[in-house]
Amino acid sequence: MRILVLGHTGYLGAHVAERLRALPGTQVLGGGRSPAAGFPVDLAAVRPEQLAKTLATAAPDTVVNCAGATGGDAVTLAEVNARGPAVLCAALRSAAPAARLVHLGSAAEYGPGAVDSRVTESAATSPAGPYGATKLAGTAAVTASGLDAVVLRVGNPVGPGAPASGLPGRIAGLLRAAGTDPEAVLRLGDLSAFRDFVDVRDVAGAVALAVTAPGPLPPVLNIGGGRAVPVRELVRRLVRLAGFAGRIEENAAGAAGSARSAEVSWQCSDIGAAARALGWRPVHSLDDALAALWGGEGTP
Fold this sequence. Notes:
Protein name: NAD-dependent epimerase/dehydratase family protein
Radius of gyration: 19 Å
Mean pLDDT: 94
Strand content: 15-25%
CATH superfamily of the domain at 2-159 and 198-224 and 270-283: NAD(P)-binding Rossmann-like Domain
Family: Belongs to the NAD(P)-dependent epimerase/dehydratase family.
Order of helices and strands: EHEEHEHEHEEHEEEHEEHEHHH
Number of helices: 10
Organism: Streptomyces phaeoluteigriseus
Domain NAD-dependent epimerase/dehydratase: 3-224
InterPro entries: Epimerase_deHydtase, NAD(P)-bd_dom_sf
CATH topology of the domain at 2-159 and 198-224 and 270-283: Rossmann fold
Oligomer: single chain
Low-confidence stretches: none
């Protein structure tokens, strides 16, 4: 089986590619904007007919789209998260209509959740900002494409190699910089939100199952931890791992933080459909994920 992984050098893409290489009888091909990509693809700019030629050369049995933008202005987000999947679907219909497409979406597509509830795939979507809105547009392009396709709506990934663009990676970076200085002060934003964290290695496992599952799959499947964790608790656990002896200031003036946190105070996914369709359940606990993040264990 030939599997083309777009965005294969990114955080999710690197873990996905590593997991897929372990599948027997597979050849994993890398695609993306990185010079290391065997198949150069910039979904934000490529024309459908150009991408179709690249896909024809790659001749994939499956395409996994891990390419996406989490930050930047609305135009950048739209180019990568909305236009990209639409162009990819158009090119696949032309060059490889029989290939399966596994696209990584985001739980941010749902928008604010109701406290003490888990959101299912059939829930109404009401994203709180450009990121969630553009990811939702990408999902719409995939589910309406007529291809053998599934969107995996991923919660908040955490684990080895987590980048500073996300909260766990950012907190870990601050703690590493602070060291064990008892006079150190971590100035953080609002930590009152609840998030559904999922180990990046479990995300990769879900992709592997989606690639190999027989027959058509549901159009959208939630991939998360299945429970809402206070962001404040995640910070406390990382602080203990780091042996941080300083002080934390929450809601500090000028502290870096996610604008989405205040708008989405509760996020939790129902992951039952993924268990039924793929036989998937997360196998790593949050403590496992944070220990691997802090220790660098399992980083591709």
